[in-house]
Write a structure and sequence with these properties.
Shape: globular
Radius of gyration: 18 Å
Mean pLDDT: 95
Strand order of the largest sheet: 3-2-1-4-5-6-7
Low-confidence stretches: none
Distance between the termini: 29 Å
Structural class: alpha/beta
Length: 259
């Protein structure tokens, strides 16, 4: 299926590995010129090489912290008029809310709520003027089914979700969509770190905790980041202009609710 976005420009955040990398790879596979942002230059350049080799797409790298004003400015200097924006930032650490003070909460809100809002603020009007825009926020299935040890993430990402519910309706009339994709358990470094925390808390081995987590999913496995990237690319496609303001779960059926 041709998604009709060849030649478009995308800014993809936290894209050196995991779900961000998978999104950049899928978009590049559709002929999109991608600018990928991550904090660490080495893995970022390695990922850029992989994307170029696999897709022959144009790839620009920006080594910056997207959760800071300075990092966002560098990203937008490299890609000042994106047609596609994929917001993503590493989640805060798991733990007990009793151990978190103001600094921990502010850091979580900066990373997982405000960074996305500020990038939308800087890019959405240009998208509207051009008559095309796709904004995807990578959040978490915990927005619908909170995970107790991920309280910082639950709170910050839910704040972003509420903001998007309002702003998405203001822009879709100009063919600018804003959606959230809510991943469940995918085989990423972030997921493995969370499993390690659970293993320590339960006093079991990491391998046992990993196997238990996989078996608990109705699919009996973890998600492949490539599956996530393909969903992201579709939501960014020309044919997806009637999908906006949605929270799209991709979790192997783990969420138990009807709605």
């Amino acid at each position: 299926m041709d998604l009709g976005i060849a030649g478009r420009k995308a800014l993809v955040c936290a894209a050196s590995k995991g779900l961000g990398k998978a999104c950049a790879m899928s978009l590049a596979g559709e002929g999109v010129d991608v600018t990928i942002v991550a904090r660490t230059p080495g893995p970022l350049e390695e990922t850029a090489g992989e994307i170029r080799a696999a897709t022959q797409a144009a790839v620009t790298t920006v080594a910056a912290d997207i959760t800071t004003d300075e990092g966002r400015a560098l990203a937008l200097e490299a890609c000042p008029s994106p047609d596609i924006l994929v917001n993503n930032a590493g989640g805060p650490p798991p733990g007990d809310f009793r151990d978190w003070g103001r600094d921990e909460w502010i850091a979580a809100i900066e990373a997982n709520m405000l960074s996305a809002i500020f990038l939308i603020k800087e890019t959405v009007d240009g998208m509207r003027d051009r008559g095309f825009g796709r904004i995807v926020n990578i959040t978490s299935s915990a927005v619908k089914a909170p995970i107790s040890i991920l309280g910082l993430s639950n709170g910050a990402r839910s704040g972003l979700t509420g903001f998007i519910a309002g702003v998405a309706r203001e822009n879709v009339g100009d063919n600018v969509t804003i959606n959230n994709i809510l991943p469940g358990a995918f085989d990423t470094d972030r997921m493995r770190a969370n499993v390690a925390a659970v293993a320590e808390k339960k006093g079991i081995s990491f391998d046992d905790a990993l196997a238990q987590r996989a078996r608990a999913n109705p699919a009996g496995r973890f998600g492949d980041p490539a599956e996530f990237g393909l969903l992201c690319a579709f939501i960014c496609g020309a044919q997806a202009g009637y999908i906006s303001g949605q929270n799209l779960l991709i979790d192997g059926g783990a969420y138990p609710g009807t709605f």
